Amino acid sequence: MDLASEAPFLLTVSLHVFIEPFTPPVPLMLCIVAGAIAVIGSFVLITFVPRDIVSHPRYPHVNLLQWNWMRLVHRIHGIFWIQLSSVFIFVVVVIAGFWGNADPVYNLAPTFVWVIFWVGITYVSAFVGDIWSILNPWKIIFGWVTNIGVILNVRPFHSPFFVYPPKLGAMPGLLLFLVFAWIENVHSQSVVPLRISQYVAAYSVVTWVGMFMYGKDTWLRHGEMFSLAFGFLAKFGVIQVQRERKSPTTNDVGVYNMNAPNEEQDEKNPPVVSAINCQPWATRLLVVEKVSIWQMFFVLSLLATVTFDGFTGTIPWMNIQNYLRGVVDSPGLIGTLGLMSSIMLFCGIYLGFAAMISLNSGGNLGFVQSATTFVYTLIPIALAYHLAHFLLFLLIQGQLMVPLISDPLGLGWDLFGTSNHRINFMLVSDNLFWFTSVIAIVVGHIIAIFLSHSIALRVIASHNYAFRSQVPMIILMVAYTIASLWILTQPMYS
Contact, 110 vs 191, CB < 8 A? Predict the structure, then answer.
């Protein structure tokens, strides 16, 4: 694999897509104005749609299990072979990081973790469904070990040691995600293979200890950050897996309750798949769910971190760094302060607008209820900006997987005859990608507006107060649109 000439552009800490300065084909101000008009216009149009259509939307859905081939896959345990492959890849990635080539370009670990896993799984989750619940290697390995322990009658594997404190909610998962975001956006050795495997090993210990102490399903819901992150994004997807749980005393089947109060009973009585529904995108986000404070902060952190990642490649951020280095001579500390400031800024702005929503609701929504009720409507925005920021990164740097399949450890192997594959930097033109990114941002914000307005009509009886409550949201959406388009049109640097 001869990538020496391309190596300076590959797997950089800044994941921006334009290698050379890029001039947008449309003036920045015109682009921003058009985006703002599109978002505002969508809100205006929604107000004239009959209330019953928006507040109680009817959408088609198909249960895929009604097809014979899907039932056959389910019966022959096809998922098992997918999970076995996932565990195998997990082991190979860890081995590559510990004992493979130290150059990130020639080692499977950096490309797989940052490109295929973090970016690729994000898109599959968002546009298809919660694929991570099937592929999660930590979940799979722990399940295998637990089954062996139960067969051998090892008592600690029969039930969790502790009952998970309900007040903690998703706080452990949020804290772990913030550490992950710091590694991705700030840490200078984020693409060093050895460091990646060390972090994966440390996270594995934390995850398995959490599952052992509180139960597998419980920790997946509260502490496993990738299950939380991909689960949030999967609410946008077209596939919804419906699980049901048999009664412990009868053979009756009831709907699976993710927030069941008896966590220990949940572990002993796992849910079974009853339906695999295919439905239009974003329809799951129309469901009014009870969202905890920690889940809210997790979603806001997802949006803030991807925005900060985009901002770090701009000239203004470079100027900020140069200014702060006169006071703090530590790039890592500057990056950490920037990341945390971005998260705090996003959370503060959103909470401020949530307060305005509460005031405009005519007493129908309290402050906390306003903040948690509408936070999922930001998921299309986070997804849209993720597409604008990472799609070309996936298409270009994802090509490294072709030679790495033949030589995952960078030891000179050629297992499948692909080790000499070269990266095609002209796979997608700059103009095409730019237009695609702008469209994704605008469409994402329009979807978010529709979701927010629909939910407002569900939770607020008065149409007038529902409309008034959404005025702060439209201001917030326009602000997000302008900020996203501004970052997209800035000259990037490496």
Answer: yes
Rounded-to-integer distance, Cα 396 and Cα 399, Å: 6
| Domain residue ranges in the chain | 1-59+289-494, 62-176+192-220+235-278
Concatenated DSSP letters for 444-485? HHHHHHHHHHHHHHHH-S-HHHHHHHTHHHHHHHHHHHHHHH
Give residue-wise pLDDT tens across range 411-465. Answer: 999 999 998 888 888 888 777 888 888 889 889 988 998 899 889 988 888 888 9
| Token couple for 31 | 């682009």
Prediction pTM value: 0.89
Please, are residues 388 and 441 in contact by the beta-carbon 8 Å criterion? yes
CA 479 – CA 155 distance, rounded (Å):
55
CA distance 117 to 123: 10
Yes or no: say if 107 and 100 are a contact pair by the CB < 8 Å rule.
yes
CA-closest candidate to residue 233, choices 351, 137, 133, 113: 133
Torsion of CA 262, 264, 269, 271, to 10 degrees: 60
Concatenated DSSP letters for 317-371?
Answer: HHHHHHHHTTT---HHHHHHHHHHHHHHHHHHHHHHHHHHHHHHTTTSS-HHHHH
